[in-house]
Specification:
13 helices; 2 domains; alpha/beta; Rossmann fold
């Protein structure tokens, strides 16, 4: 994504704009953004919040379990309290609802907006963001969105905050990091686990130089183990576990192979949910908090 100023002065009745080129084409982005709609409600929302953009519409997150607070829980609550509308259930896109909001800008995950890009572009200029699944880091997205909105200094500040957090953890917990075999896992209703290198929590562990259990090597970039094979995590003495719902937790605790794992027996499980698997800078900072809990003395 690249950004440059317009060559001509806009008409007095129109807001000033600048030209931005994205993977989907060239758009004219207002110099002054007064309303933003986020399409997917994950990384796009995360980044919009990190830049303190004026969010005017977002999808309904129908899956989030209320019993587990996450990085976007409180910011979303505050948006709703301020009257920001939830436009449609996540995983669907209601173009008419977006048009009614009449935003200055739309931000959305590239995989979601690709097929409806033309329709969205008739409403407002569209800036895409990626995901860990498409190999685009949140830092890349923050840099490109910052450039597109002439917020390069803010983008550097956002990224530097994470880098500083990584450096602090690496120094403070150097011995524990070196001595502790860890794994980041996600669990399922069936009582199995999966390990994915592209998830935000996994990347945070890599960034601090974690020593991983042996199952990590088999994740290329992801691997799943059924309930009968969760002992693949038996050499990890601590885990960050995305156990999203109470049903998932019950399924895991009903599996004696899971409850027999050293990390579970010693209560060295830091619980999160699947919504921290991908995200932007707020999720990444939250993940560093999980990493600190993993290594901090009990």
């Amino acid at each position: 994504m690249s950004s440059c100023g317009s060559d001509t002065e806009p008409a007095a009745t129109n807001p000033a704009t600048h030209t931005v080129t994205t993977q989907f084409g060239t758009v004219e982005v207002p110099d002054r953004i007064e309303s933003v709609v986020v399409i997917d409600g994950r990384r796009d929302l995360d980044i919009a919040l990190a830049f303190d953009l004026p969010i005017a519409g977002m999808p309904v997150e129908t899956e989030a379990p209320p019993e587990i607070p996450g990085p976007l829980t409180e910011p979303t609550r505050m948006l709703l309290a301020d009257g920001v509308p939830e436009l449609y259930p996540r995983n669907t896109v209601d173009l008419e609802a977006i048009a009614r909001v009449d935003p200055d800008l739309i931000i959305g995950r590239d995989e979601v907006i690709e097929e409806i890009y033309d329709q969205l572009s008739h409403i407002a200029p569209v800036l895409p963001v990626g995901s860990t699944g498409t190999g685009v880091s949140w830092q890349q997205d923050v840099t490109t969105i910052g450039a597109a909105l002439n917020l390069q200094d803010e983008a550097r500040t956002i990224i530097d905050e994470y880098t500083t957090g990584v450096d602090q953890l690496t120094t403070q917990y150097a011995d524990a990091i070196a001595d502790t075999a860890v794994l980041p896992v996600s669990t399922s209703e069936q009582g199995g686990i999966s390990i994915g290198r592209d998830r935000v929590t996994s990347i945070a562990l890599e960034d601090v130089g974690a020593r991983f259990g042996s199952a990590w090597a088999a994740a290329t970039p992801e691997i799943e183990y059924g309930p009968e094979n969760v002992t693949a995590a038996s050499d990890a003495v601590a885990m960050i576990a995305a156990i999203t719902s109470e049903e998932d937790l019950q399924a895991m605790n009903a599996n004696p192979l899971w409850t027999g794992l050293p990390a579970v027996r010693s209560d060295r499980i830091v619980r999160t949910d699947k919504f921290t698997n991908d995200g932007g800078p707020l999720t990444a900072m939250w993940a560093l908090g999980l990493v600190e809990k993993l290594y901090a003395p009990s």
